[in-house]
Amino acid sequence: MTNIIFSLLIVILVLWQATYFLPAGKDSIKPLPYVIALQPFIPLISCLFCLIAALLQAQHFILLIFIIFTLISLLQFLPYFIHKNTQHSHTNSSKKSLNIMSLNCRYGRANVDDIFHTIENNHIEILCLVETTPEFIAKLEQAGIRTLLPYKQLGEHSTDDNGGSNAIFSSYAPVISNANALPNYPAAAIPAITIEIHDSPCSIAAIHTKSPMRSCAQWSQGIMQLRNFHMDNQLVIICGDFNASINHPSFRYLLAFFKDTAINLKKGPLLTFPRWTLFPRIELDHVLFTDSITPVHAKTVTVRDTDHLAVIAQLQFEIIK
Fold first, then answer.
1. Is the pTM of this model over 0.90?
2. Where are the alpha helices (DSSP H) in the chain?
3. Residue range 245-268: mean pLDDT, rounded
């Protein structure tokens, strides 16, 4: 009977891990977004089952299958450690770095003092916020956010705001600014600005995809629609709360058009949710970019009164002359 139970557990684990390989968009069926989001814990669960099976003296082939499956399930982390950077440096180019911060403000409850300290301590030049409210923006303004980041672009308010609207604060004067850069987007309107980096335009957008709780179909659709921000031979950065990780097929579809900061740094995922516990914590927030941009450094930072860690990334631009 023990062997039958552990055989069933192996089948469940295999089927769970197999959802990783679904086609993009097919992960929009409830509860797949949640099931896939928890895949990083499969190796640990498999190890636990293997230990229990050993204590209960299950047959050796059961233990062997658990061990083999655990090793196979660890392959999901390989992109964070063996990703091959295919960008090449050009001799006739100049480089410029940009410090960017992304934060989910949890219905506009994020601690304003923490935000200011993080901006000052990390020399933040671009701040992308999601789940803001008019009252929260007013608090930032009253606290003097414009003395640090004088330029602002808010997203349009709409009935599709998921937890609030998005906003961008910048130390660079935008040459183009848009309150709704992707019309008919199935979530909060996406504000975007274009700044000049060594006389080359760089577009930056603050993203908050709809959570699967609100609509699994619109969650997947919203992630994949972000491909529309990709433009050949142009610098583009999109960052925020994507409500997804590399395990989700819809998000990997987007990575065919953009590069992920954590993956390119090869130091492991940037785990951001939930803020209040080290384990279990998953990766939902990202800084994505196009060619000619290279991440130099990235980290997560605690901001009180919100449920996500902030993501800070230093990006380097290679401008070919």
1. yes
2. 2-18, 32-37, 42-55, 60-73, 79-82, 112-121, 134-143, 145-148, 216-225, 249-254, 261-265
3. 97
